[in-house]
Amino acid sequence: MRRLRFIERAALWTGQVGRRAVAATFDVSISHVTSDFHRYREMAPRNLLYDVAEKCFRPTDSFKPLFGAEDPSSILSTIAASVDLPSQDRGRLLGFTPPVDVVQALPVAIDQPLLVTVCRAITTGASLDITYQSMVTPEAVGRLFTPHALIFTGQRWLVRGRDERHKAYRDLALARILSAAASPEVGEDLPRDDQWHDRAALEITLIDGLSPGQVDVTARELGMRQMSDGSFAVRIEPRQAMIPYVLDHLRLRPADHAAQAVPIRLRNYGDIRKFDRPNVAS
User: What local confidence, expressed as pLDDT, does residue 282 receive?
Assistant: First the structure.
């Protein structure tokens, strides 16, 4: 099935697919691949046409994906996520290997034993005795912390969990954890982390003053739809705990509008303000 999906994806996204490419990608014989093509053409007889001159199959004008149409945004996300994979692995995953690069995050200095300890605690639900250097206290402070999830903001890795020092769920920067060890304390049943499990809607629209052409192209670029009042908007529903990081990434706080590179604004900041960081300028 993986080879059949590869055949279909390669034909769709590159306009051609050959036996040798499939055989090389999956380390199988040409005879195996010949059988794969025969099976695919039995399942979708109108999808592929053999190009004798180039010795490859090409999608026909009536091509219709056998395994379902794929959303372009999902494909692009997969392409970005696979950028560091070896070429052969990317080919198996995507069906094609376009040249691509992404903006790199800064390297993170996290010791493997510490990350192992945190990941094991997340898996087992264990509590940790950690030493954490925050930017609020001048010295590192010991805490009893029960992690349950990892967060990547696009720049930093955080761990989310129950912080007994504050009796609340907090996000701690992994790189600021100086030490972590399994705690001998047996934790009580923890309250539900509502902001992790519940979501909130962000209604993103365009700023005023754009020309009709700018409105059309920006709305299309950002996947916006025209509303009943004639405006364009898109709605996303991140976890409530992720809202500060989404606002950082998209520069959606009201104070960011003057320096906004992309002409968008958050229509309902007042509704989700309670999930943003305290004391953030608005």
Answer: 39
Write out the two tokens for 228.
Answer: 């009943």
Structure tokens given for 219: 């709305």
For residue 15, give Cα distances in angstroms to 18, 55, 58, 83, 205.
11, 13, 6, 22, 36
Cβ 78 vs Cβ 11: under 8 Å: no
Give dist(CA 245, CA 111) in Å, integer: 24
Axis crossing angle, helix 2-14 with helix 19-26, rounded to the nearest 10: 130
Tokens standing for 119? 């990941």
Rounded CA-CA distance 123/129 in Å is: 16
Q: Identify the DSSP state of 65.
A: -
pLDDT at 187: 59
Distances (CA, A) of 144 to 112, 128, 149: 21, 6, 16
Residues of the chain short of pLDDT 70, as ranges, are 186-188, 257-261, 280-282
The pLDDT assigned to 281 comes to 45
Nearest CA among 217, 193, 204, 281 for reference residue 246: 204
pTM of structure: 0.81
In the numeric block, which tokens belong to residue 79? 């392409």
C-beta neighbour count of 108 within 10 angstroms: 13
Tokens 């349950």 -> residue: 148
User: What token pair was written down for 264?
Assistant: 């968008």
Tokens 């993170």, located at residue:
108
CA separation for the pair 17, 194 (Å, rounded): 48
